[in-house]
Design a protein that fits this description.
The complex is a heterodimer of chains A (142) and B (152). Chain A is 6% helix and 49% strand. Chain A is mostly beta strands and 142 residues long. In chain A, the strands form two sheets. In chain A, strands 2, 3, 5, 6, 7, 9 and 10 form a seven-stranded antiparallel sheet that branches. The relative contact order of chain A is 0.37. With 152 residues, chain B is mainly β. Chain B contains one helix and 14 strands, in the order αββββββββββββββ. In chain B, strands 2, 5, 7, 8, 9, 12 and 13 form a seven-stranded antiparallel sheet that branches. A four-stranded antiparallel sheet of chain B has the order 1-14-6-10. Chain B has a two-stranded antiparallel ribbon with strand order 3-4. The two termini of chain B are 18 Å apart. The chains are: A mainly beta (142), B mainly beta (152). Strand 8 of chain A pairs antiparallel with strand 11 of chain B.
Chain lengths: 142, 152
């Protein structure tokens, strides 16, 4: 039987490895699985390089699958523009569950208290002037 | 069978052994280093806690009000160090003092950018795998203190 330490380390994961993106995309084809987080899920978006100016924007959303087939937005990180690197931290607590929701997209800077089994990232890049963002998303249950 | 207290005591970890930080020192224990002959380094807590208590025990301060010491505890989440507890600023003209803080895994935490500093006297309810302390002193005085973390 695994220890808590082994379980926890095996659950912590990289949803999106660091890479440079110039166009929108997602990881729906390569989601990660996190089973039974003890209390909450902590998410970090690390934008380590940006280009080129304020008209370039990056919106990153984390989605979870709670019914085995549909993705639901649970974290829309604050929008990042092309002028400065950023690291943004968010926390999702399942027991604080939302009231009735539709599956409408979350607005930037907000979360929903839902925790499923699988997690993916979607990102939207709007390029005003040769946009380029290098970023990663990690997930750590606690 | 061990009691909760016995189990808990086994997990108590010293983040920073009693140490005297001197004038305008700035540093952290994210990596192992020697500070005033005392080895300091990050601490890993095995067995994910539902909460941690943190005790900052300041046993001596010197000498004037403009001497200040800021102690911040950090946790490692997914490879990133994040500030989670910033003790109330310690002044050089005060007396020995002890600060206690609690961080809960089940408590909410608003989204934030790490470029936004955690101000003194506040916590963020985040729990990672490893823990470190950073310190920022200003002025010419010294401060003697220790930092302990207790999983709960």
């Amino acid at each position: 039987m695994s220890t808590n330490l082994e379980r926890r380390f095996s659950y912590a994961g990289t949803i999106l490895a660091s890479g440079t993106k110039t166009a929108s995309g997602d990881t729906s084809a390569t989601p990660i699985t996190i089973i039974d987080p003890p209390n909450a899920v902590q998410l970090i978006l690390d934008v380590s390089a940006v280009a080129t100016d304020g008209t370039d924007t990056l919106d990153v959303t984390v989605r979870t699958m709670i019914d085995g087939k549909n993705w639901v937005d649970i974290c829309a990180f604050t929008e990042v523009n092309g002028t400065a690197t950023k690291r943004i931290v968010a926390k999702i607590i399942p027991r604080l569950g939302p009231s009735v929701i539709t599956d409408a997209a979350l607005t930037a800077g907000s979360i929903r208290s839902l925790v499923g089994d699988k997690y993916m990232v979607a990102w939207t890049i709007v390029s005003g002037n040769a946009a380029s963002f290098t970023f990663s998303v990690v997930c750590c249950p606690c | 069978m061990s009691t909760n207290l016995e189990r808990r005591n086994g997990y108590v970890q010293t983040l920073l052994a009693p140490i005297t930080l001197t004038a305008a020192a700035t540093g952290n224990s994210q990596t192992t280093q020697i500070v005033n002959t005392v080895p300091v380094g990050p601490v890993t807590i095995k067995d994910p806690p539902s909460a941690v208590a943190i005790v900052v025990d300041v046993s001596a301060v010197a000498t004037i009000v403009s001497d200040t010491c800021d102690i911040t505890v950090q946790t490692l989440i997914g490879g990133f160090w994040v500030d989670v507890m910033h003790a109330t600023q310690i002044l050089g003209n005060g007396s020995a003092i002890r600060f206690v803080a609690s961080i809960a895994a089940s408590a909410g935490q608003a989204m934030f950018a790490t470029s936004t500093a955690l101000t003194a006297g506040n916590v963020r309810n985040l729990i990672g795998d490893s823990w470190a302390v950073k310190w920022v002193l200003s002025g010419t005085g010294s401060f003697t203190l220790s930092v302990t973390i207790i999983p709960e």
